[in-house]
Design brief:
By secondary structure, this protein is an all-alpha fold. It is built from nine helices and no strands. The longest helix is centred in the last third of the chain and has 15 residues. It starts with a helix and ends with a helix.
């Protein structure tokens, strides 16, 4: 219970933690099932919490999807939670770029590459990055 009191966990993440603490497989499965029935453990709630948190930190859809996979969330649930092609991400990548680099367009190709690498690391698609850099150029 202490694990769930601090923050949301995915089912597979909590299973790994309980196994690491020496609990047996049958006991872990029964515990996880009981927690899910009492709505104390919910992958949907975990997904919502993680996605909201990562968006607030300026991460893009690719990075969020990868992190959800690391937590044992299935592709179908990830697809429902994070649509890589949503228009929302185009606005978000522009906001992240402006917060990090300001409103001025990249001064040269090296600066442009630096900004692109940063946005790629944050998990935005190359199409989203190109659109953000193009918008920065047109904002001059």
């Amino acid at each position: 219970m202490n694990l769930l009191a601090r923050r949301e966990h995915s089912t597979s993440q909590l299973r790994r933690k309980l196994n690491a603490r020496g609990m047996e497989g049958v006991v872990v499965d029964d515990t996880l099932q009981a927690l899910a029935e009492e709505r104390l453990l919910s992958d949907e709630r975990f997904i919502e919490s993680l996605v909201r948190s990562r968006i607030a930190k300026g991460y893009g859809p690719l990075r969020i999807r990868a992190e959800l996979r690391e937590h044992g969330i299935g592709d179908e649930q990830i697809g429902n939670a994070v649509d890589v092609n949503a228009e929302f991400w185009r606005d978000r990548v522009v906001d992240v770029r402006r917060k990090r680099f300001g409103t001025a367009p990249p001064a040269d190709l090296n600066e442009r590459a630096k900004e692109a690498r940063f946005l790629q690391y944050r998990g935005f698609t190359s199409e989203q990055i190109r659109a953000a850099l193009k918008q920065a150029d047109s904002d001059e």
